[in-house]
Amino acid sequence: MDSAISDARTPLGASADNGLKIVVVGGFGVGKTT
């Protein structure tokens, strides 16, 4: 892949991963509390 494209997509990928982790952790938290 082109390094420029990779650099441009890295922050977006990190944001998506963080969002997914929050959703997964939040879902597990809700599942455990209920």
Describe how the helices and strands are arranged.
Elements lengths: L2 H31 L1
Fill in the keyword field for this structure.
1 helix, rod-shaped, mainly alpha, 34 residues
Task: Write a short abstract of this structure.
This protein is an all-alpha fold and 34 residues long.
Provide an overview of this structure.
The mean pLDDT is 71. This protein has 34 residues and is mainly alpha-helical. It is rod-shaped and about 35 Å long. The protein has one helix and no strands.
Question: Can you tell me the residue ranges where pLDDT is under 50 for at least 5 consecutive residues?
Answer: none
How far is the N terminus from the C terminus?
A: 45 Å
Radius of gyration: 15 Å
Can you summarize the main beta sheet? none
- Number of helices in the DSSP assignment: 1
Beta-strand residue percentage: under 5%
Shape from CA axes? rod-shaped
How helical, in percent, are the residues?
over 70%
Which structural category do the helix and sheet elements fall into?
mainly alpha
Q: How many extended strands?
A: 0
Average pLDDT score: 71
Give the helices and strands as they follow along the chain: H
